[in-house]
Amino acid sequence: AMQGAMAKAVALAPDSWVPGGKPDPLIARQHGHVGKPVSRLDGPLKVSGTARFAAEFSFDNMVYGALVYSTIAKGRIVEIDTGEAEAAPGVVTVMTHRNAPRLNPPPVFLSNPKAAGGDTLPVMQDDRIHWNGEPVAVVLAQTQEQADHAASLIRVRYAEETALLGFEEAKARGTRQGLFMGPPLHNEIGEAEAALAAAPVKVDATYRTPRHNHNAIELHAVTVAWQGETLRVHDASQLVAHTAWSMAQIFGIDAAQVVITSPFVGGGFGGKCMWQHHILAAAAAKVAGRPVRLVLSREGVYRIVGGRSLTEQRVALGASPDGKLKALIHTGTTAKTADNVMPEPFIMPTRSAYAAETMLLDVQTVELDMLANTFMRAPGEAVGTFALESAIDELAEALAIDPIELRMRNDPEKDPISGLPFSSHNLAEAYRAGAERFGWGARAARPGAVRDGEWLVGMGCATGTYPYYRMPGGAARITLRSDGHATIDIAAHEMGMGTATAQTQVAADRLGLELDAITFNYGDSTLPGVVLAGGSQQTASIGASVIAAHHALVKELLKTAGNDSPLAGLEPDQVASRDGGLCKLDDPARYESYASILRRAQRDTICVEASPPQPLETMHWSMHSHCAMFCEVRVNAVTGEPRVSRFLGSFDCGRILNPKTASSQFRGGIIMGLGLALMEETLFDERNGRIMNPSLADYHVPVHMDVPDIDVIWTDIADPHTPMGAHGIGEIGITGTGAAIANAIYNATGKRVRDLPITLDKLL
Ligand code: MOS
């Protein structure tokens, strides 16, 4: 009986992230909310069209903005003729560098814990042009159509200068060590080149991945107003608090004077950070003295929102005949700009993937005169696993060992570079379960062996991985009402992944309440916390914040309960939340409801706010999500057309909080990986720096016809060292997918394609 009672009580969560700390009690399913496939709470708002997105808010007297983009990559504006545009119907203001307000440069992401910018370039402050597509004018008009038309009337004359645009040319001039979040992207264990040379079996190849652009369904948009001294911004954002702080720096005002709200976001993936449209809309609103709505066109997103940069990666593997890795070399070059901080860190997955005797990992960068590149779903891992896991498949072929068996022979017992133990590492189980469900045993080892009419059929697999992160700074507030309802306030984000739903489940379990007794408020920079929806770490961040706030709430409740309560004399670590109240952990009969505690104290509400301790867990453990990806392809022997016919993702990502929203995250990542493997490619003209396919007609992403039924399974093995036992799941799905598809194509055709995307011309 005591066991049963214990199982329903949620004790105060200890600090699972220090050695000796106890696992979060939510790892066990106490009240049954966590782990249930709860449908999205925002679903009805979405399907009924009542969810309001950034471009659907309006202000009185609002005008509409349109941008004019430079057509050269580098140089000066000699003359900008705005007369015709200013005289056009409905035009209110034209802003150029000549009349834009003086602004501070944007704080680039990672330069400060609250920075949100894509780069540090000054925005419309002088006549300089830094990339082809940089905004040179903002037109404000009474309607969007009038603004768009007037923008087309602006004539710009440039003095062009020679820009550095060619990747090969830039490499020839010399590369620089890549730095990612501080440390150099360079690791060495032993003498890898010598070990490679001495290895009896080896593969050594170069893999290339192209630029990718962000294509969230919702176009980037802001609706802004200066209300007295306050800048009010309706945004589509994955970092509201960061954006508020950053905008304040740019406009030289107090952070509290900027209010960013973003209740719904139509897709993020790393692209919905602060870019020039935020700054230009707010500046133009100042110039015009009127509120502004600025929605980027699809072309506009390509011109001013950075994407994933290109990479050229060498992977060289040396092995003994039994498949043990003697040498693992993963090096290469990526392009960035001089003004941003994001070298596509493609060696990240390789750091912890295999127990190789020697390793050499390195990312070099070149700096081009282009739009700043940025984070895109699993930056580093998405393209790094393509190269690494293609090479592993090539080695398996060279050794005549099954690719899964080869991976298992090199599955590391501890982190190969840091030497830290893994907090949770069940890749072998993910492979075992995945192989069984997918029918891996039916795969023909010899390439090109299976044919169905004019279709060549093949199977491939690959490992995916993504780190566990948790960022500091996320305070949460809990307000408990005398009717037993609780409100959680935190400046978090819902980009369609189910944050609000999963966090409502977590909070309900944590507080011992039903789902409908919880309100989860987010997406507002005036709420507590500095939370980033990125790095697949928002869930862990918020989870830790709510743990801290729950601690504070229990303390406050016990104080409030006083001597007449059945809880009198109990310390916080002796009680648990349960059934809408608190009880003694080892004597659940000693119970009082929240409502009763508040009533006796004649309180309407109890409100607490607290921050979690620093995220130290990654100093004690090597922490990663893993997956085993399985793909079946059919390649047309006549046309070369590749079709993914079956796909299975088998995940090891800790405790899954909501199987329904998690499945969608996994599938969404895999679909994006399918685009990476077969379609996506930004065409960057190296002669002039222009992106030549800035539309969804020219830049291909998977459509329904390209996507088979995608099967997803998971180990559901909790990580004892994270909040809720969970790992992030937003990015893992895109990792490993590209290689699984490339490996399946090899198995089907015998053709090894090492440059993405794998289009039909490469298979003929
Ligand atoms: Mo992600 S690329 O951290 O939104």
Automatic annotation (TrEMBL):
Record's keyword annotation contains Oxidoreductase: yes
Q: Which domain of life is it from?
A: Bacteria
Pfam families the UniProt entry points to:
Ald_Xan_dh_C (PF01315), MoCoBD_1 (PF02738), MoCoBD_2 (PF20256)
List keywords of the entry alphabetically.
Molybdenum, Oxidoreductase
- Give the signal peptide, or none: none
| GO MF annotation: an example | oxidoreductase activity
Start and end residues of each Aldehyde oxidase/xanthine dehydrogenase a/b hammerhead domain? 48-162
Q: Does the keyword Transferase apply?
A: no
InterPro entries (alphabetical): Ald_Oxase/Xan_DH_a/b, Ald_Oxase/Xan_DH_a/b_sf, Ald_Oxase/xanthine_DH-like, AldOxase/xan_DH_MoCoBD1, AldOxase/xan_DH_MoCoBD2, AldOxase/xan_DH_Mopterin-bd_sf
| Record protein name field | Xanthine dehydrogenase family protein molybdopterin-binding subunit
Could you tell me which species this protein originates from? Sphingomonas naasensis
